[in-house]
Amino acid sequence: MEEQPRARDANATRARILAAAKSEFARLGLAGARVDEIARHACANKRMIYHYFGGKEDLFRAVLVEAYLDIRSAEQELELDHLPPREALERLVRFTWAYYLDNPEFITLVNSANLHRGKHLEKSERLRTASRRFVSMVQEILDRGVADGVFRPGIDPVQLNIT
Q1: What is the pLDDT of residues 42-83, one digit of tens each?
Q2: What is the CA radius of gyration of the chain?
Q3: CA angle 137–141–142, rounded 5-degree value
Q4: What is the pTM of this model?
Q5: What pLDDT score does 163 carry?
Q6: Domain ranges, residue 16
Q7: Using CA atoms, how far apart are residues 109 and 30, in angstroms rounded to an integer?
Q8: What is the C-alpha to C-alpha distance for residues 116 and 123, in angstroms, rounded to an integer?
Q9: Ranges of the chain with pLDDT below 50
Q10: The CATH number of the domain where 112 resides is what?
Q11: How far is residue 108's CA from residue 27's CA, in Å, rounded to a whole number?
Q12: I need a surface site. Which of 12, 18, 64, 116 has the fewest CB within 10 A?
């Protein structure tokens, strides 16, 4: 019976560490963030960070993956399949900009990841799966738009997302 409270405490500690790390990495980047500051803001100790995440770069990776999974999950909830292609794409674009405005730390985290050429993201199978679902969703909208004559053929869904 003792295991349940410990598991909850472990989950709560891990969540506090991730939240503090997200804030610290968004503010200072990977190079500027300090594990002792993350621990202090998370009301945890450095040992717990190393226990749960292995090290600063692994913690950074966990923060990035969580940030990307959050937006990918929210995009999937838009239910764009039933909308006409132009409206579906417009809703996705509006959602994306609203998400960026509501989550400014996401942009700074992405910029920080890009400075490292995405090396912290390439190992995450969960993120690859979520990204494939997103690209498929956009490709499906584009395909419907081409079939309806509202989009030109040959638009790359990844490049569209970047722009």
Answers
A1: 999 999 999 999 999 999 999 999 999 999 999 999 999 999
A2: 19
A3: 115
A4: 0.84
A5: 80
A6: 3-162
A7: 9
A8: 14
A9: 1-2
A10: 1.10.357.10
A11: 8
A12: 12
Q: Count up the domains in the chain and report the number.
A: 1
Rounded CA separation 59/77 (Å): 27
Sign of CA dihedral 24, 26, 28, 33: positive
pLDDT at 4: 56
102-123 exposure pattern, b = at least 16 Cβ within 10 A, e = fewer? ebeebebbbebbeeeeeebbee
Structure tokens at 102: 């509501």
From residue 12, alpha-carbon distances to 6, 15, 44, 52 in Å are 10, 5, 11, 12
Residues 130 and 88: their CA atoms lie apart, in Å, by 19
- Predicted confidence at residue 1, as pLDDT, reads 46
